[in-house]
Task: inverse folding
């Protein structure tokens, strides 16, 4: 079966950095557009960053633009999220998600119901 497993979360001070990883199995990874979402306590899940199946297109939420980089290694079935200059408001559970590649991904990437598979998430806590 399909599994997405995130890692790399943890406790970091304001201004610090983390690199999240999401390892996929049970699917042909290079056929999937991938994204990172996050959910803070008491808040709705929100889109963070997305990358097309070929890595030819990436997009970011305004809240992380300029501080984060999404990338993927199709040979390792893994997608990454490098986060720098972390702020307390970045504290959340970060989850990766997979959507079978689509020519219209760039119009639907921010919607949770776009994605077919989800990982359980990894906690990121930024202290002030």
Result:
């Amino acid at each position: 079966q399909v599994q997405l497993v995130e890692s790399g979360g943890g406790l970091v001070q304001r201004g610090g950095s983390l690199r999240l990883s999401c390892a996929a199995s049970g699917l042909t990874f290079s056929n999937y557009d991938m994204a990172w979402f996050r959910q803070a306590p008491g808040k709705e899940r929100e889109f963070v960053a997305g990358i097309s199946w070929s890595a030819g297109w990436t997009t970011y939420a305004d809240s992380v633009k300029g501080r984060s980089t999404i990338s993927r290694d199709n040979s390792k079935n893994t997608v990454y999220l490098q986060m720098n200059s972390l702020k307390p408001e970045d504290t959340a559970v970060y989850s990766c998600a997979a959507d079978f590649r689509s020519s219209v991904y760039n119009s639907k990437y921010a919607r949770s119901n776009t994605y077919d598979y989800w990982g359980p998430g990894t906690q990121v806590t930024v202290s002030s």
Q: What stands out?
A: The chain has a mean pLDDT of 96. The CA atoms of residues 94 and 122 lie 5 Å apart.
